[in-house]
Amino acid sequence: MKINQIFAISLLAFTQTLGAQVVINIDADQRGPLISPTHYGIFYEDINHAADGGLYAELIRNRSFEDDASPCNWSVVGDAKIALIQEGLLNDVQHNALNVIVARPGDGVRNEGFWGINAVKGRKYKLSFWAKSDRKYKGTVTARLQSTAGQSLGEEDLKLSLTGEWKKYTAEIIATGNDPKAEFTLTADKPGEFQLDVISLFPPTFKNRENGMRPDLAQMLADMNPAFMRFPGGCFVEGQESPDNAFRWKRTVGPIEQREGHWNVNWGYRTTDGIGFHEYLQLSEDLGAKPLYVVNVGIWHGGCTPYDQIDEWIQECLDALEYANGDVNTKYGRMRADNGHPEPFNLEYIEIGNENYNFNMDDNSDQSDHYPERYIQFYNAIKEKYPNVKCIGNVESWATDYPSWRNDHPVDLVDEHYYRNPKWFADRFNMYDDYDRSGHKVYVGEYAVTSNFGEIGNLNAALGEAVYMMGMENNSDVVAMNSYAPIFVNENDARWRPDMIRFNSSEVMGTPSYYVQQMFPNNIGTQVVKTDWTYSLEKPQQTDEENARPVHIGLASWATEVVYRDAQLTVDGKAIDIADYGKWNKVSGNWNVTDSDIIQNGNQQPAMIVCPQDIQTDKYTFNVKAKKISGREGFMAMFGYKDPKNYQWFNVGGWSNTQNNVEQSIDDNRVALCKGDRFSVESDRWYDLQVDVDGDSICCYLDGKLNLSCKALKGSAMEGVYASTTIDDAAKMMYVKIVNVGDGSADGVINLTNCAVDTGRADDLKLIRLSSANGGDENTISNPHNIIPVYAGIRSGNNNDVLFDVPAYSVNVIRIPLK
Length: 819
Fold this sequence. Notes:
The chain is mainly β. It is 12% helix and 40% strand. The chain contains eleven helices and 52 strands. β27 and β28 form a beta hairpin. α8 packs parallel to α9. The longest helix is centred in the middle third of the chain and has 16 residues. The protein is globular.
C-alpha cells in the first residue's frame, strides 16, 4: 500500500502589487501518519576525539602510558627521569607503566591533558593512581593543578609507603583559580624511584556518574531530547587492519585499570575505552534514550572473518544482549549488576553491521563480504533468544540515492546514509512519500550536509537538512528513526567536517545544524496533519554581473584516468577552432596534451582542464570523444564554466560508474539537474559526447542519441518555502514548521480549520526561529551565539488565524495552543 500524497504546494508568481506572503492552510481533521515514538535520536561515534578528550570526562591524556612507545603527553618536572617499563605490571591488560627517578625534592612528572586541563575555581577534581616501588619508596607526593607558568591552582599531598606490590591512591583537589590550559603535576619531596600507572583525574560528571561524562557536552545531547542513541559507531565498530582494532565490548567494561583500550585506527588515535559498553548504556538511560547497539559482523576495513566461521562474533552479540537485558542470575547480567546496575538496560535495537552491504559482496573491497549470509545468521540467533529485539540491516552507504534491501531475508529496519549538499536535502522533501508501506521501516542512521557547508557548518546546511527532516516527519510511518552524523569534534584535532557540536577544553558551541536537531525533537506532535501552503517572496535586488561573465567549455574526470580527442565547439552555428590543446588551462589534475589528445593520468576528485575560448552567447554546442583508461568512474564534458566553483557538466559513468547525470555547481554546491538510468562506461572504448546549450535548456547526447535533457538553475541553488504540521491531541498543541531556504522574505498567515487557537493560553503561542542575514553565516567558538534559536513575534488574528513573518534563510517552529 502506498500513502496518499498529503502535501500540496502551490507556487504563486511574485507580484509586488499583491505583496509577498506565505499562506498556510491547516485542517485539523485531515490527518496523516502517526509520529514514531523513536523518530529523532542521536548517533555517537568516537571520531575527532569525541570520547577521550571529549565527552568522556577523563582529564589525563595517556593515563595508562599505552599511547606510544614513549611516554607521550608526559614530561618531567625538575631533574626527574622517566621511562616506560614492561615488567612487574599492574595486571595482564596493562602493557606499560612509568618508572620515575626523583633526583631531588620537587622532581616529578607533568601531564598536559587534552590540549589543556580546564581548571575552574572551586571545582573538585577526583584523583586516583596506582603506584609501587621495588626499592620501598617512602615520601610525600604533591598532586597539583598548575598554570603553564607554574602557578599552583590547587594541590593535595599524599603520603606514600610503597613496596613491590601495586597500591591504589586517591585524593581530591579543589581548584583555587581558573585556567583552561592548566596542567597536572605529581612531584615528590624525597629522592628515590617508583612506578606509576593509570593516573586519572576527573571533574564533576554528568549526573555525577563514576567514570562519567563531561557535563556541558552531555547536556548538549540532553537538550536534543533524543528518543534513542546509536553507538559505538560507525567505522569505529569495524576497526581497521585487524579485528583487534574493532570495538570488542567485553574489554570495555569493569574498572578502568582492567580496560586494555585499543587503537582507533580508523580515526587515527588510541582510545582508552573509558566510554565502554556499560557507559554507553548508562548514558542512553541518563538521556532518556533507547540504546541502539551496532555489532560487528566479522568485517573490518582491510579484512574479514570467513562468513561461514563467524560464530564467535554472533556469540559476542548475544553476550552483549545478555549483559544489557539479562537477569542477574545470568553470567553477564550478574556482571552488569557487579558494575553497578542490577536492573536491565532494556536494549531493544541491534544494528547488524555498519555500512557492510554495498556493492562487492565477493571480494570485501568495500567491507561487504557476503553480507546477506552474515546478516541472516545474526538475525536468526538474535530472534531465537530475544524475539522482541528489532534488527536493523545495512543497505548501500554511498554512490546511490536509492539504497535497497536486495535479498529476501526478514528485516525490521534498514539503515540509509546520506552525505550530500544543502540543495540535495531540500529537494528530498517528498523523498519518502511513495515508499512502500507494506515492508520494512527505514532508519536514516547517518545524514548531514558535507559539501558547501562553509568552514565548520553554515546556516545553508541547516536549512537543507531541516527541509529533509520535515519530509521524514511527514512520513514517520516509514522513517521510524533518524540521526545526524557525526556529533562531536575537538577543535584541536578535527578529522571530519562538519560536526554539529564543537568544543575545546573549556568551551562548547553548536552549529546551526545542531540547533535544528534540537528544535525539531522538542517541537513535535504525535500525528501529522495535512498542510497546504502557497507563497510569494519579496526578493532583494541583485545585479547581473555574475550572469554577464563569459563561460567556457572544458573536460573533467573523477578518480579516473581518461583520454579525450576531437574537441569541437560551435557557437551560434559557427565552428570555433579550439584544437590547440596546449593553450587549455589546467585547473586541477595531472593533464598532458598532444596534438591530438588530452590525457588525464591522476586520481584527483575532480580533475579539470578548461578551454580558454570565451563564450558570450546563450547558444552553443560542444562535441568531444572520450575513452576511459582506468579508475572508479567515467568522464565529464564541462560547459557553462565560470570558475572552479561555478560550472555544469555532463557526467557519464558517475556514482562509481553506475549512472549518467547532468550536474550544476553554484558556489561549490553541486546539484544534480537530471539523472539517467543505470549505465557503466567500458574501458578502452571511445564514446562520442555532445552537449547542446540553448539558454537554460541543456541536451546531452551519447553516441549520437539523446541521453539527458534538463534546465539549468539560475541564481541561488536553494529557493522556496516548505511547511509541515504535527499535532498532539492530548496536550492540545499544534506544531507548525516553516523553512525558507532562500533570500526572499514575506509576511505569513496560518488559517486553521476544525480547530481553534486557545486564546486563554496566549503565553503558549510561540514562534521559535533560527535565522541570519546570509545562508553562509556560521557560529564559531569565539562567537557561539551568532545563530541560535530565539523567540520571534507572533500573534493570533481575529479569524482563527495566526500572523507572523518569514524572513530569508530561516527555520521557524510555531507552537499553537488549541482549545
